[in-house]
UniProtKB/TrEMBL annotation, chain A:
This is ABC transporter. Keywords: ATP-binding, Nucleotide-binding. It holds the Pfam family ABC_tran. PROSITE patterns: ABC_TRANSPORTER_2. Signal peptide: none annotated. GO terms for molecular function: ATP binding; ATP hydrolysis activity.
UniProtKB/TrEMBL annotation, chain B:
Residues 9-77 form the HTH gntR-type domain. Gene3D superfamilies: Winged helix-like DNA-binding domain superfamily/Winged helix DNA-binding domain. This is GntR family transcriptional regulator. One of its GO terms (molecular function) is DNA binding.
C-alpha cells in the first residue's frame, strides 16, 4: 500500500522555488531515508506530508487524502524536528498530554527511555540543551507509534553515543511495531544500515529513489594511470574525477560493468574500489565534477 | 560477529556468509531452523529487508528451504552446496589474485607452488 504519494508537486516561497515537480511514492512499513544538500527541499517535503504547509501546485496524497487540514493525517502521523511546538508544561506533563493525543502511545516505553536518558520530570522543554531537546523529541516520536513517523534531522546536537542509541531504539521498535518511517539526515553513512530505501532530492526535484542495496552498487571508482582510467570509463557517465600527481587519476563512474570486465581492468593494473551510498549522494548532488577544488583552479 | 560496514561486500552477502559459516561449523545442522529476518535484523542492527535478501540468496542456492508459516530450515545438502560454491567462487578468485600478485613480483610457478606447499605444512603444524 502507498502511504505517501507526490505527483509533480511544486512549492514556492515568494519567488523562490523550494520544490519543482517532485514525484515519488512511499510504500507502507518501509524505512526511507530522505537525503539532499542544504536547501534541496527536504524540510519542505516533510512539512507538506505532515499537512503543515500547502503545496503551490499539488497532487499530494497521504493515506489517500490531501494532508492539509486533514484530521486523518494529523491523527496518524507525527513530524519530529527541532521546531516542534510543545505545550508550556514540564516534561512529565508533556508526556501525559502526548499520551492523550496519540492513540497508539506507549507510555511505558516513553517512561523507560525518559529514565534511560536521565531526564528531569520537572524541567521545562525550552530550557533543554540542543542535544537534550532532540533526544526528548525523539522519545515522543518513538512512543507515539504513529503509522507514519517522520523525523527531520533528528540527531541534530546529539552526541555520538545518543545517536547510536537512537538508531538502535528506532530499529528495535520498528521490528516490534512495523510502521512507515521517513528520516531526513545529512549523515547517510551512520544510518544506511537501517534504511530500506533512499530518496535523493536535488534542487527541489526527486533525483533518485531506490533500495539502499542498489545504491551501494550504483557507482564504482578507478584509480591508476590517467590514460588507462580514462580508457576504461570512456563510455560511462562520470560522477567525479580528480587527478593525483603527474599521471595518476581517480574517476568515479556509474557501475554498469560486468564482473569479467572488472577483473580484466584489475589485471591491467588499476585499483578498483566501491563507492559508499553517502559518497554517491555527494557526487550526484554536487554541481561540478571536481568538487571544491574547481573553485580554486 | 561484527559486520564490516566499510568493506566492499554488501551487508546481505555478509549475512548469507555468516549463516553459511554457522552451517559449516556445525552450529546449524540439517533441518535446524535458522534465524528469521527479524532476528537477524536485531542481531546485526540492520534493516529487516536487507536481512531478508541474505536469506533469499541462501534459498536460491538450496542452502535453506522454507516451510510456510514456520520459517527457514537448513537443507539436507546445505554443507555440500556451500563447499561447492566456495570452491568455485571464493577459492578460485583467491587463487587468481595470488597468481596475479606472483606475476607482478616475477615469482615463477615453481617458487609459487613451493610457497603454497610451505604454507600448507605450517598450517598442518598449527593443527597439531
Amino acid at each position: 500500500m502507498t502511504v505517501v504519494h507526490f505527483q509533480d508537486v511544486s512549492k514556492k516561497f515568494g519567488r523562490t522555488k523550494a520544490l519543482n515537480n517532485a514525484t515519488f511514492s512511499i510504500e507502507e512499513n518501509k524505512i526511507t531515508g530522505l537525503i539532499g544538500r542544504n536547501g534541496a527541499g527536504k524540510t519542505t517535503i516533510l512539512n507538506i506530508i505532515s499537512g503543515f504547509i500547502q503545496a503551490t501546485s499539488e497532487e499530494v496524497k497521504v493515506f489517500s487524502e490531501k494532508p492539509f487540514n486533514s484530521l486523518l493525517v494529523s491523527a496518524n502521523s507525527i513530524l519530529v524536528d527541532d521546531k516542534m511546538s510543545m505545550p508550556s508544561l514540564n516534561l512529565k506533563g508533556i508526556l501525559i498530554e502526548a499520551g492523550r493525543f496519540y492513540e497508539k502511545w506507549d507510555a511505558s516505553l516513553a517512561q523507560r527511555l525518559f529514565e534511560y536518558f536521565s531526564f528531569d520530570e520537572n524541567q521545562s522543554h525550552d530550557t533543554l540543551s540542543k542535544g537534550k531537546k532532540s533526544t526528548f523529541n525523539m522519545i515522543i516520536g518513538l512512543a507515539s507509534r504513529c503509522p507514519l513517523t517522520v523525523f527531520d534531522e533528528p540527531t541534530t546536537g546529539m552526541d555520538e553515543a545518543v545517536r547510536n542509541d537512537f538508531y538502535r531504539a528506532l530499529l528495535k521498535d520498528y521490528l516490534a511495531h512495523p510502521r512507515t518511517i521517513l528520516l531526513s539526515s545529512h549523515h547517510l553513512n551512520e544510518m544506511e544500515d537501517l534504511l530500506e530505501e533512499v530518496l535523493l532530492i536535488k534542487d527541489g526535484e526527486t533525483h533518485l529513489h531506490m533500495p539502499i542495496e542498489d545504491l551501494k552498487n550504483y557507482a564504482i571508482a578507478f584509480k591508476g594511470k590517467a590514460e588507462l582510467v580514462k580508457e576504461s570509463t570512456k563510455d560511462q557517465s562520470i560522477l567525479y574525477q580528480k587527478t593525483h600527481g603527474p599521471d595518476q587519476m581517480y574517476i568515479v563512474s556509474k557501475n554498469t560493468y560486468s564482473e569479467e570486465t572488472l577483473q580484466r581492468i584489475k589485471r591491467s593494473g588499476m585499483e578498483i574500489s566501491n563507492v559508499t551510498p553517502s559518497e554517491v549522494c555527494v557526487y550526484l548532488t554536487s554541481s561540478s565534477k571536481g568538487g571544491i577544488d574547481d573553485v580554486f583552479s | 560477529m561484527f559486520l564490516n560496514t566499510e568493506g566492499t561486500k554488501p551487508i546481505y552477502v555478509q549475512i548469507a556468509e555468516w549463516i553459511e559459516t554457522e552451517i559449516l561449523n556445525g552450529n546449524f545442522k540439517k533441518d535446524d531452523k535458522v534465524n528469521s529476518q527479524y532476528q537477524l535484523a536485531e542481531m546485526f542492527n540492520i534493516n529487516p529487508a536487507t536481512a531478508g535478501k541474505g536469506l533469499m540468496i541462501l534459498m536460491d542456492e538450496n542452502v535453506i528451504y522454507k516451510k510456510r508459516g514456520l520459517g527457514m530450515f537448513v537443507s539436507i545438502d546445505a554443507k555440500k552446496n556451500i563447499i561447492n560454491k566456495r570452491k568455485e567462487q571464493t577459492l578460485k578468485r583467491l587463487v587468481q589474485e595470488l597468481v596475479l600478485e606472483a606475476k607482478y613480483l616475477d615469482v615463477d610457478e615453481k617458487e609459487l607452488l613451493e610457497m603454497i606447499r610451505q604454507a600448507n605444512l605450517e598450517g598442518k603444524g598449527e593443527e597439531k
